[in-house]
Amino acid sequence: MHEDHRSRLREQFRSAGLETFPPHNVLELLLFYSIPRRDTNEIAHNLINYFGSLVNVMDAAPAELCKVEGVGEASATLIAFAAQLARRYLAEQSVEKASFRSSQDFQSYIASKFLGKKNEIAYLFCLDNAGRLLHQCQISLGTKYSVSLDNRTLLETAFHHNATKVVLAHNHPNGLRAPSSNDVQLTEAAAKLYREVGIQLLDHLIVADGECFSMADQRKFGRIFLSNVMGIERQQAADIT
Question: What is the DSSP string of 100-122?
Fold first, then answer.
């Protein structure tokens, strides 16, 4: 009986996609591939009841998933893998057509990359002169309260992808978007590092609760991002301080 149900659910997916599936059926189908001989419908319901929604299930850490009855290490790993695969697919799908003319363009693109992240992480985005995205990658994994930047990683990543402009972004899991004093120091150091090799740091975005704080858009931080490599004179930088 279970195998007939599994066959029908697979066929429904092949013919109509996931759009027709309620949340528990999405999980039920996924769990077919980690639990081959047991009814996964009840486990799927357990997950939805425990976490409250499909999104919360997919964002949960494997250790938390294993607290739900019927979920073992293999199932928890599969769910976490599926969530991260979806994020990576969306990110890579948009790379070739992404072009950023303003910090607002970039904010719309970047905020979703930090959904569900429990620790601070830093990303580097490499762009060409026209603002087209050449490469993006996580460059640092920090704690719940801080993240550090490695100069060698910052330079090697930009050089390897022939970037003339870069954007930094990191998250604040505590929900506060305002930069800390350490964030300001890291930004100043990164801008100086890139300026010395002819690369412009366009912005440092801080993401919290799905929204971005753009340091480049704040007048008091504007001096950090002005650079001679873009034909902006030092005097102009002094004028806005």
Answer: -SSHHHHHHHHGGGGTT--S-EE
> How far is C-alpha 90 from the chain's CA centre?
10
pLDDT at residue 121 above 90?
A: yes
Model pTM score: 0.58
Cβ contact 183:193 at 8 Å: no
For residues 168-182, b (16+ Cβ closer than 10 Å) or e, as one string? bbbbbbeeebebeee
Percent of the chain with pLDDT over 70: 86
- Where are the chain's structural domains? 2-90, 96-239
Q: What is the CATH number of domain 96-239?
A: 3.40.140.10
pLDDT tens column, 51-109: 999 999 999 999 999 999 999 999 999 999 999 998 878 766 665 555 556 656 677 77
Contact 112, 171 (CB under 8 A): no
For 2-90, CATH gives: 1.10.150.20
Q: Of 153, 220, 160, 230, which Cα lies nearest the Cα of 195?
A: 230
DSSP secondary structure of 142-203 = --SS-----HHHHHHHHHHTT-SEEEEEEE-TTS--SPPHHHHHHHHHHHHHHHTTT-EEEE
- Cβ atoms of 159 and 178 within 8 Å: the answer is no
Distance of CA 219 to the CA centre of its chain: 26
Residue 93: the pLDDT is 64
Contacts of 214 (CB under 8 A, 6+ apart): 103, 107, 203, 205
Q: What confidence tier does 132 reach under pLDDT thresholds 50, 70, 90?
A: confident
